[in-house]
Amino acid sequence: MKTIFITIILLFNTSLIAESSLETVIKLDAQIKVLKVEMNLKINILKKELDITGQELFQNEQKAWEKYLKTKTIFTADRYRGGTLSKIIALKAMLETIKIRLRQIENYIEIYNTT
């Protein structure tokens, strides 16, 4: 009887952790979507400040950054491969990396702002 009770408690706790993990994933995903929208708006502002050559160079840099974001996210989460934390770790890494990139783009806007 004691074993059954302990098993039920463990199953209940596991489901709570899974629910909590799902909520965390949903929240992080929503934050990432908001930041990506903000980043796209800032990119459009920056592109208006750049000449054709600058736009091409920035486009290349942005493509390289997107590859970096994907690679960094995968690498950061790899340690937790197969575990419930893997997705959360990946999303947190992505969120922090996007925040840094957003600040970089804001700095570019300040540098290239001609008005």
Number of helices: 3
Radius of gyration, in Å, reads 21 Å
Indicate the low-confidence ranges by residue numbers: 8-17
- Average pLDDT, rounded to a whole number, is 86
Largest sheet: none
What is the SS-derived class? Answer: mainly alpha
Termini separation (Å)? 76 Å
> How many β-strand runs?
0
Q: Shape, please?
A: elongated
Brief sketch in words of this structure:
This protein is an all-alpha fold and about 120 residues long. About 90% of the residues lie in helices and about 0% in strands. Helix 1 (about 1-50) packs parallel to helix 3 (about 85-110) and helix 2 (about 50-80) runs antiparallel to helix 3 (about 85-110).
Features:
elongated, mainly alpha
